[in-house]
Design goal:
There is one protein chain. This protein is an all-alpha fold and about 100 residues long. The protein has 6 helices and no strands.
Length: about 100
């Protein structure tokens, strides 16, 4: 399914980094303090906030400390059949029962 909101992976990385930085500052945490609390190296955190690049494990550690772990639960959650189908499939109104065609 093609998203209507065409954002590149790089743009999404930077947006997530910006949101993390905003939350860190709202919580009045320095990069050094967040690094120590999360176990993510200061260099990795600094690089993430500047470029958006970070490992998934480190991102999850940061999310845990910032109280955002629940945001990841829905990342690849099952969606209703109507949302997952293409326009052609919706027109045919066929229900897929298996992942293979």
């Amino acid at each position: 399914m093609i998203s209507v909101n065409m954002i590149t992976p790089q743009e999404m990385q930077k947006a997530i980094a910006k949101q993390l930085r905003r939350l860190r500052l709202e919580l009045n945490l320095s990069q050094q303090t967040l690094s120590e609390k999360s176990g993510v190296s200061y260099g990795s955190l600094k690089k993430f906030e500047q470029t958006g690049q970070i490992s998934l494990a480190s991102l999850l550690k940061l999310a845990l400390v910032l109280g955002s772990m629940d945001d990841f639960k829905m990342l690849f959650a099952e969606k209703s059949a109507e949302k997952a189908l293409s326009l052609d499939e919706l027109i045919k109104e066929e229900k897929r029962e298996r992942g293979r065609k």
